[in-house]
Design a protein that fits this description.
Length: 163
């Protein structure tokens, strides 16, 4: 099984790119937001950042889902903010490729301000950026600039995951 993890902070476009990429690769789509506990969702809705202790069962449930799939290729929309999240995912899947959607704070804040019906409030952007362990020295991470058009980002993503 091959796994592509579309990662980044809230508002970076993980879900959008993941849907497009899964369709392009004829892959299973796994939306990590669906694996948050009700308590974690309530915490975020209340504008409180998640601790590593709250995140750990979430990332473990995503890893378990990967272990249980029969799909040849899986695209995972997952923030994977912490290095240990990425390490856990690496131990569950090989080959694996991370696509890091990065952008500046004003652009991310603007995108979050336009979102509706999502449990992650824009007020948590700062904590997400502070929590992010930059994947600068990780060979299996491709950086994708969210200032590009969706079509350009998708094309770069497809190019990056062609094994």
């Amino acid at each position: 099984m091959s796994v592509v993890v579309v990662m980044g902070v809230s508002g970076s476009g993980k879900s959008t790119l993941s849907v497009q990429l899964a369709a392009a690769l004829n892959a299973e789509l796994l939306e990590a937001d669906d694996y948050h506990s009700p308590e974690a969702v309530a915490t975020m809705r209340a504008g409180e950042p998640l601790s590593d202790d709250i995140r750990l069962p979430w990332i473990e449930s995503i890893c378990q889902q990967l272990a249980n799939t029969d799909s040849k290729t899986v695209v995972v929309a997952c923030s994977a903010l912490r290095r240990f999240h990425r390490q856990k995912l690496r131990h569950r899947a090989a080959p694996i490729q991370f696509l890091y959607l990065h952008g500046n704070r004003p652009l991310l804040a603007s995108r979050l301000g336009q979102r509706e019906d999502h449990f992650m409030p824009a007020s948590l952007l700062t904590s997400q950026l502070q929590t992010l362990d930059w994947p600068a020295d990780e060979a299996d991470v491709t950086w994708l600039d969210i200032r590009k058009t969706p079509a350009q980002i998708l094309a770069h993503a497809i190019e990056a995951v062609t094994w």
